[in-house]
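From the shared-data thread, chain only:
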Amino acid sequence: MHLSTSSTRRIILILIAFLPFQLALGQTKRNAVLPKVDSEEYQRLKGQGKITVIDPMQIMREAKTKPKKSAFKEKPGVVWNTNRNAQFVPLSTGNCQSCFTAPDPLLDTIVPITSGQAPEFRNDDGSTTEITLPFTFTFYGVQYTSVYINNNGNVSFGASYSTFSSQGFPNSTVVMVAPFWADVDTRNPQSGLPYYRRNAHSFIVKWDQVGYYSSAADKVNSFQLIISDGTDSIIPGGNNVSFCYGDMQWTTGSASQGNNGFGGIPATAGANAGDGTNFIQFGRFDHPGTDYDGPASSTNNDGISWLDNQSFYFSTSDATNIPPIITGVGYCDTVTVCMGDTLALNVGFLSPEAGQITNIAVNTNGVPGFSAINNTPGESASVTLQLAGTQANMGYHTIVLTGTDDGTPAQST
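Structure, as tokens:
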């Protein structure tokens, strides 16, 4: 975190964070056959609550391609870029934005879901065929050169997934990267659509103002996923995954016991290797609001608006302890503190792995008028930084915040 001022009578705070089938038809037969997604029969059964779980292991067994273990290893790292401009106004003078961007008609293509109809491919619970990546994506030591885009807020490897009610991570079946795994339904013409873009070293999927089941668009969500080979500067710090969020308004479809977009089975944000061990979970969301109690083993589910305009950068390249993830400050935010004003800024570090405790060390470097209060360790550690703008602290200053977890080996950000 960098604190700076010019010779004018104001203090500028620059915040930089460098930092992660069994088909159940009611209680029918174990080997029941799933109707075709988006068929009238499928929608009838889903609406009656008779389609609940699709076991991805059967799909994996039926997949033609199998992932191969790779000896490739790279040092993992996590960068969490959280930009919450609304908190900083009118203090913020920078133009830092979430990494979510609106679809570009010249660069982005509507995701061609097989159960939808061209050109918009509107659907419920659909997926693409296997899409070849122009690079190798390393996911906990496994290398992939292809991916499936699933309408329900995630991409998967080895097979597509139609499951609309999300599960918490880790689990031993789901192999996916999920910026927002929930029951996305784009059949309403008022709903937006998912788009994708292939670059030489990155793959971008955007769910732009999408609605929820059943054909509802009174609330819409905008979020984005980027995966890469770790060399594309679109994901800072040598990381290979980014989650980017715009305005998030709903969490749950009615087939997942939701009511008007909330309640029922919560949505999941994270990544899961499918081995029951390696995962990242940022939270599970089932209600409106900004409340949040931690990433992995949260006691309570979280408020969907906590995700608004956030950007998370992390690495899934290796199977090891992931460093704490910073939240509360942006990757490029610039905050101006005027003479006589006092800035109070909440900064946190999250422990991506369940049960880990992170402690925050603050080095103020002797900046006059600067203090750290309410420094609380935990799975979601937090500290409040306070700065009073005075004549004594005009100029450029550097404040160092270090979050250290108790994993094996311990990691610091």
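The two ends are 12 Å apart (CA to CA).
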